[in-house]
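Subject: for your reference before the review

Hello V.,

The reviewers asked for a structural picture of the protein, and I figured it would be easier to keep everything in one thread rather than splitting it across files. Below is the amino acid sequence we used in the manuscript, unchanged from the supplementary table.
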Amino acid sequence: MDDELLQRAAGLPEITLAPGDTVVREGEAGEGLWILVSGALQITKAGVVINSITRPGAAIGEISLLLDSAYSATVVASEPSIVRFAADGRAFLMSDPAITRLIAVGLAERLNFVTTYLADLKHQYGDSPGLAMVSEVLGHLAHRQGAPARPGSAREPNPDY
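And here is what came back from the structure prediction:
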């Protein structure tokens, strides 16, 4: 699937990134969509490293475009990398139904991975204090319908504990 998205993005301009170059910054607004051609990108959320992207054809910025929200994470090149860039990401998504389908499949794969991981955690550590609450909250969020979700938490950002 990633190869197909990379092929469909062949006409987009390529940008060469050096290690440390920022692609998107958490909380900032943007309209762009990036497709990784080569290299590695590190994803951080609230200053915590959560993932690394190395698969050519992986999309960056698609969640913000689809939710019409600010970027939910910061993405930085962790090695020399090349990305293809659609300055008007929405127009690129709408230019071909196959592109939108490929983005949807990528998001569905990631959701499937997270829910499978959650099920594995519950299976291994279901009796552990606190895990039941995490599972319940994630399960509720995964099946939530209604008004668009707003990222963040209502808890105190810097508790005393």
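For the response letter, the relevant points are probably these. The chain has five helices and eight strands. The chain has a mean pLDDT of 85.

Happy to draft the paragraph if you're swamped.

O.
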